[in-house]
Design brief:
By secondary structure, this protein is an alpha/beta fold. The protein is about 60% helix and about 10% strand. The strands form four sheets. Strands 1, 2, 3, 4, 5, 6, 7, 8 and 9 form a nine-stranded mixed sheet that branches. Strands 11-12-13-10-14 form a five-stranded parallel sheet, with helices on both faces. Keywords: ATP-binding, Nucleotide-binding.
């Protein structure tokens, strides 16, 4: 343990630091939690110069008035002073109790802080302030005599840098704070500023003063949606107005923040005004909770309107009041009073006069005209105004409708005494939520899925819907104007806009510690949980558990649902779950996931499978279990050819294992899992990374001197070279690996190495050698003791050998033998049912049908394989299937269709890094382009493909490109005729050497035709 002040070591039983004398402070971890807050940093400018020559007592006296003013300003607006710094302080708003207005409150506190210090009359005391809104870790630090609330995290450093950059008596704020407080406070942009410790310049704003806009006007100005639904609530309000002639009626609209209380109240009030009603309205503000009669002042100003500051007006309702009540109104309105009678009144008498005057004014207005008295957000009402509004809400006055709005946590204690009708507001229904979204996003059906996701994410809370849409638009996910927006790119996560984080956090702060703990366990479990799991992990007595679940259900945080799953519970909406989860500090989060993991492992009936176990093990940072379950989850994905998902789990497994202690056994496992992951990476088209797996595994095998695993790693690297490198490299490493594998006595890796070398020979145009090597591998795999390396099976590897050998035999013209191997490949694919195997069989089947000059049948087979490969993300096969499908279209005379498919094949091959597929698709794309009339472009493409194939050693593709050049070159002019003859002779020579008899025969037939016609082609 170390001293918080000087970091010196402290003994277990010490109460004081022996080095500096500071009291021992201990962090109480259970109180630690993540919070989204606004941080205020303030200090006295040049404080060192002010006190440098002073004695300690005098120095303290010099700065203390400024510090006292700072503390008072912070506390006036609900902030917590977390640390005093000698010449300044750090404060936090929005913690330990969440407040969705933390940014406006912090800005108002900063304005008041500067004003208070300035009013001290000491020109030497000038302050500067920095504000930033962000996530922090908040915790209690306990010493022997006191507790201090402190915060930690990068957010406080940005606030400190803004403070340091500010000029004297100026308030600098971050963009995050400005966006949250905009409308409530006036800002000036200072552009981007370079702040110490931050690499990139950041947007900085200066506070110019408080805004005179009410909260409702700020919200209305930001709103981009129209008022929808609320049929039930409006009907209740209209029914109340029908009875108002008999006497005053009071209605309380109650609901959580963002539910639409103000919107409904103002829409209804406007309807009444259109019917001849008088509106008196006032809004309670969180910034003015400490200012006596602030809400009542707004109410009286609404009544008096333009007469408020003109006592001579004859229609002023104050004129009929007794003098003492007139002075009472002047006092609330902050008008100057010079009346000895008022000065002599006791405080309770003044309060009575203010209440009587307010009631008299409202009654006088209601007698002349039906009146609606709207008081918003009474949960923020100041104490003095609360008493008066309570009296107004109980008046026995006909034609007066009192309409109040409040959050559940702030319902007035006096509401029952005035016989108010309480209207509990609920979220919108799905139809209304979709109508609201259609108004904002537009009617485009392309947004239907996004709209449904937003409905689910926000649970139809109007504010949440608006802010999520605004966030998507501000981030560039949605493009266009409100009412006509389109998605720029797919949306992975809808997220939680910072503007509503505090709203949700404030709801969570209303539950008890036990309820909060249960909610956190549920959040770690995911969007849906069951009571059995909660019971196991929470370890609460059954009666306490049920009491907590009932409270959470009543608060609509974790609700019981009708489901076939017994005792199912789910979060009212995903944002509540996410804010709950994010509020946990790392240690708490890890502990909960560890408990969940233990419960799942004890009873696997609760677990959905290894993927669920992997998730909780990773979040619990139990790296050995994360490796075990991640590997199991990857294997499960491989069985269904879900290669992209398998890659994700293999990466989790590899990363987790590398976090365990270094031992030879760990390194052996690290090599094995990389070998096992090879097919997932290559199958999903991440060929370069598959090669890196082999290289990394080879390095690790060398480090532990494991020859067997080194050969395995070299085999994987050699296989990846077939796609990512050149044939010469692939053949060289493939031959070495086969030799090593044969001598190592590991038949599984030998069989895979032989398959890879056969593929390398094929790509190099050495078709006879390819067929021979693949036949050897087939014989091993079809024998009595077939063997395959980790990550595959003998049957699947045999299928690949049959596929590749059938293709090689098709190229050499041995079609009957190719047919037998193709049938064997199809039989294995039907036996395994794996999409990968079916795609592989379709690939060789398409080759064979093209070799038999049946392009229509080839297209049918290749189309099925292409669709299957795309559906399952088997990206390795997509470019080659698309290429041969394009060839099938070309040979059927479907030239436009062929060009489109071959273009797609080439682009996909480039993306994957599949060099031979890029060349082959380029050759046949050129031929399709030639048939569509663009001869020059076709010739250029063919020339480029031929040169690339020659340089990189793809001799078979070089022969195909040469034949293509002969086809695409017009037989006009001696130069062209000579070029055609040269291309055909070169193609024949290469095809003859490689054993590609069908190509050799086609080129020879064309050459004979050219020679027989004297150079004139038909």
């Amino acid at each position: 343990m170390h001293c918080f002040a000087c970091q010196s070591a402290i003994g277990p039983g010490d109460s004081w630091c022996s080095k500096c004398g500071a009291a021992v402070r201990e962090r109480v971890e259970p109180d630690s939690e993540r919070r989204f807050v606004t941080i205020l940093r303030a200090d006295v400018v040049d404080s060192t110069g002010l006190v440098a020559e002073l004695e300690p007592e005098a120095a303290v006296s010099r700065l203390e008035p400024a510090l006292a003013a700072m503390r008072g300003a912070v506390r006036q607006f609900g902030g917590i002073v977390s640390k005093e710094l000698g010449d300044g302080l750090a404060a936090v708003f929005g913690a330990p109790i969440a407040d969705d207005n933390h940014a406006p409150l912090a800005c108002h506190a900063a304005i008041e802080l500067v004003r208070r210090v300035g009013s001290l009359g000491d020109p030497g005391l000038q302050v500067r302030v920095g504000l930033h809104s962000g996530h922090v870790v908040a915790y209690m630090v306990a010493s022997e005599f006191s507790k201090v609330y402190e915060i930690g995290g990068a957010a406080q450093h940005l606030a400190a840098r803004l403070e340091a950059a500010a000029e004297a008596n100026q308030i600098y704020v971050s963009q995050a704070c400005q966006e949250l407080a905009d409308g409530h406070v006036r800002f000036e942009s200072l552009g981007r500023r370079t702040l110490r410790g931050f690499g990139e310049p950041l947007p900085v704003y200066r506070v110019m003063g408080a805004s005179d806009l009410s909260s409702w006007r700020v919200r209305r100005a930001r709103s981009v949606s129209r008022f929808v639904d609320r049929t039930t609530e409006r009907a209740l309000l209209w029914r109340t107005t029908e009875r108002v002639a008999a006497g005053r009626r009071t209605v309380l609209l109650m609901g959580d923040a963002g539910i639409g209380k103000s919107r409904l109240a103002h829409e209804f009030a406007q309807d009444l005004r259109a019917g001849g009603w008088r509106l008196i309205d006032a809004e309670c503000s969180p910034n003015l909770q400490g200012a006596p009669y602030s809400a009542l002042k707004r109410l009286l100003l609404s009544v008096l309107g333009g007469t408020a500051r003109d006592p001579a007006r004859t229609d002023d309702p104050r004129n009929s009041l007794p003098v003492v009540q007139q002075r009472a109104v002047d006092a609330v309105l902050d008008l100057p009073i010079s009346d000895p009678q008022w000065d002599e009144l006791e405080p309770h008498a003044r309060r009575r006069a203010i209440s009587d005057a307010s009631c008299a004014i409202v009654e006088s207005v209601a007698r002349r005209q039906r009146t609606i008295l709207l008081v918003e957000d009474v949960h923020w009402i100041d104490r003095a105004s609360d008493t008066v509004v309570a009296t107004l809400s109980a008046l026995q006055c006909p034609d007066l409708l009192v309409l109040l709005t409040t959050r559940p946590s702030g319902m007035p204690v006096w509401i029952a005494r005035c016989q108010a009708e309480i209207v509990a507001m609920r979220p919108l229904d799905d139809d209304s939520g979709l109508a609201m979204l259609t108004e904002m996003l537009g009617p485009d059906t392309a947004n239907t899925d996004l709209k449904n996701r937003i409905i689910s994410h926000t649970a139809n809370v109007p504010l949440f819907i608006e802010e999520v849409c605004r966030s998507l638009k501000d981030s560039g996910m949605l493009l266009g104007q409100w009412g006509d927006l389109s998605l720029a790119r797919p949306v992975d996560e809808l997220g939680i806009p910072s503007s509503i984080q505090g709203v949700i956090a404030a709801r969570l702060d209303r539950v008890s510690r036990q309820e909060r703990s249960l909610l956190q366990i549920a959040a770690a479990l995911g969007p849906r949980a069951n009571q059995a799991m909660l019971r196991k992990v929470a370890a609460l007595p059954e009666d306490v558990l049920q009491e907590c679940l009932t409270a959470l259900d009543r608060a609509e945080l974790l609700v019981r649902i009708d489901s076939e799953l017994e005792d199912s519970l789910e979060f009212r909406h995903e944002m509540v779950r996410q804010v709950t989860y994010d509020s946990m500090v790392e240690k708490v989060r890890e502990g909960i996931h560890a408990s969940i993991l233990a419960a799942l492992e004890a009873d696997e009936a609760w677990a959905d499978g290894p993927d669920t176990l992997c998730y909780h093990a990773t979040r619990a940072k139990d790296w050995q279990k994360a490796f075990d379950h991640g590997r199991s989850a990857a294997r499960k994905c491989l069985l269904s050819s879900a290669y992209a998902d398998a890659v994700d789990y293999f990466e989790i497994a590899m990363g987790a294992l590398d976090k365990t202690p270094m031992t030879p056994a760990r390194e052996a496992a690290a090599i094995d899992v990389r070998m096992e992951a090879r097919l997932a990476f290559s199958g999903s088209g991440r060929v370069a990374e598959a090669m890196d797996l082999g290289s990394e595994a080879e390095r690790r095998a060398d480090a532990i001197n494991d020859i067997g695993r080194k050969i395995a790693a070299m085999t994987v690297r050699a296989g990846a070279q077939n796609f990512y490198g050149t044939p010469l490299e692939a053949v060289a490493i493939g031959e070495d690996v086969v030799h090593l594998a044969e001598s190592s006595g590991n038949p599984g890796w030998r069989n895979l190495a032989q398959y890879g070398l056969g593929q390398a020979y094929f790509l190099a145009g050495r078709y006879r050698e390819a067929e021979k090597m693949l036949a050897t591998a087939r014989a091993h795999l079809a024998g009595s003791a077939p063997s395959a390396p980790i990550g595959t099976t003998p049957r699947s590897l045999l299928l690949l050998c049959c596929m590749m050998d059938s293709i090689a035999l098709t190229v050499t013209g041995e079609l009957d033998l190719a047919e037998r191997l193709q049938q064997q490949a199809v039989a294995i694919a039907e036996e395994t049912g794996r999409p990968y195997d079916r795609v592989a069989a379709a690939y060789s089947g398409g080759w064979l049908k093209l070799g038999r000059n049946d392009p229509a049948a080839a297209a049918a087979i290749l189309e099925d394989g292409f669709v299957l490969a795309q559906k399952h993300g088997i990206r390795l096969f997509v470019p080659v299937l698309a290429c041969h499908l394009g060839i099938a279209y070309l040979e059927q005379g479907l030239f436009e269709r062929a060009r489109g498919m071959l273009t797609e094949a080439r682009e996909e091959a480039k993306a994957v890094g599949y060099t031979s597929a890029v060349l082959r698709s380029s050759i046949y794309l050129a031929l399709a382009t030639h048939r569509l009339g663009d001869v020059q472009a076709a010739q250029n493409m063919l020339r480029e493909a031929r040169n690339t194939a020659r340089q990189q050693g793809f001799s078979g593709l070089e022969a195909e490109a040469l034949f293509g050049e002969a086809v695409a070159t017009p037989p006009s002019g001696e130069d062209n005729k000579a070029a055609i003859l040269a291309a055909l002779r070169a193609s024949i020579a290469i095809a003859s050497d490689s054993g590609a008899l069908p190509l050799q025969h086609k080129a020879a037939a064309m050459l004979n035709e050219v020679l027989a016609s004297g150079g004139e082609l038909t």
